Amino acid sequence: MFPPVLFILFLQLTVPASSLDFLFNSFTDTSAAANITLTNDARIQPPVIRLTNDSNQFSLGRAFYPSRIPFKPSNSTNVTTSFSTQFVFSVLPDIATSPGFGLAFVLSNTTSPPNALAGQYFGLFSSSTTSSPAPLLAIEFDTGRNPEFNDPDSNHVGIDLNNIESVITQTAGYYNATGTGNSANFTFVPLDMRNGQNIHAWIEFNGPENEINVTIAPAGMARPARVMLSYRNPVIANYCGTEMFVGFSASKTQWVEAQRVLAWSFSDVGVSRNINTTGLPVFRLENSGSSSLSPGAIAGIAVGCVVAFLIVVCLVYWFWWKKRKEMEEEDKIEEWEMEYWPHRYSYEELSVATKRFSNEELLGSGGFGKVYKATLANNLEVAVKCVNHDSKQGLREFMAEISSMGRLQHKNLVQMRGWCRKGNELMLVYDYMPNSSLNKWIFDKPKSLVNWEARKEFWPMWPRD
Length: 465
Prior knowledge:
By secondary structure, this protein is of the alpha+beta class. It folds into 2 domains: 4-285, Jelly Rolls (Sandwich); 336-456, Phosphorylase Kinase, domain 1, CATH 3.30.200. The protein is 18% helix and 31% strand. It has 7 helices and 24 strands. It has helices at 4-13, 30-34, 295-331, 347-353, 395-407, 438-442, 452-456; strands spanning 21-24, 37-40, 43-45, 48-50, 59-64, 69-70, 83-93, 103-108, 136-142, 156-161, 168-171, 173-178, 185-190, 199-206, 211-218, 229-232, 243-252, 257-267, 343-344, 362-366, 369-375, 381-388, 416-422, 425-431. The strands form 4 sheets. Strands 1, 3, 4, 7, 14, 15, 16 and 18 form an 8-stranded antiparallel β-sheet that branches. Strands 2, 5, 6, 8, 9, 10, 11 and 17 form an 8-stranded antiparallel β-sheet that branches. The relative contact order is 0.13. Mean pLDDT is 82; it is low at 5-17, 286-292 and 458-465. In the N-terminal section; belongs to the leguminous lectin family. In the C-terminal section; belongs to the protein kinase superfamily. Ser/Thr protein kinase family.
């Protein structure tokens, strides 16, 4: 592997007869269109190159520099050309879980490799078992896993020699250095190439040494000091023709995956010039809710969230106010009630008096409901009988019945003191009887039966159910 300084000197000492050096920081002006050859569905979509067409089910596209580069003399088996290139690309699926494809940097003796297929073949290769008939070398940035190609994962970089099955692969990522010099430590950081982020790639091709070095990092980050993928093998010369095109290729099937080239720098006379990554666009999912948002859209979403929050607060307050109003209406003594008797108690007053209708204050229960002992604010002890009010019966008519019961006066009947209504539940308030009711001492199998003399005494009791 050549260190960067030695690689620069090596390029300067091996300058081909016809040198090439160019830099596209974007693909906006007309000079970019004049200096890029596009095939099939590839097109310039300022400020980027789009390699495939979303509308076509099976789409492939290629973008090449229009001039061939001499790689080795005629009838020679030795590659004499070396080059340095760097570019920024973005791969973005329409659906994150759909199959991935990616793109490839290509060295080819033709801009239209014969029998090339779309889908996982990058628009370069004909099948997984047949080598391409033309000299073809590709560095694939693969965002899908195809087990039949021995792909290690769905996010890797590989080197392909006339065949879709890579001779070497490496999970996409970069080495983060801590420390300096010989004491530097390198930690591998995985890099997702399929989330739309801009990826900066560097490739050094050393022809005489038959070596290819690949490095990637997020755009805007300094180039990592350590190469991610290195391949050195004399067989590389077998896949280079006397003259080769350099460029990019990509393909897809029915699943939309936008493959974009945002900038490109190339040189066969030295290290390629650095790309200005500060002004490059950043893409997000276009059709499934993850598109890049303008400041106006963000402000609109923020305002919408605030308005929705205020609406929810207003609705909560309205329901609370309505409920409270209903409770106040239930506790409010209306004018027509004044003609009846007895006294009407508020629900809150009886709730406090019975300790929130706790079981500790429960005196008894039956088919009619439950009876609780209550202590009013004036320390008067009463009994509260809760009964289920038939909602079909008019309240005024029911009050008339309660009024009649309240006027009953008898020494053996418990005096009714008042009432309360909450929804369909009615509470009747009576005098409290510490000795319980008479029927308990006569009919409920008491331990000692009350004799007739005691029964003749004035014994307050509850009205029978």
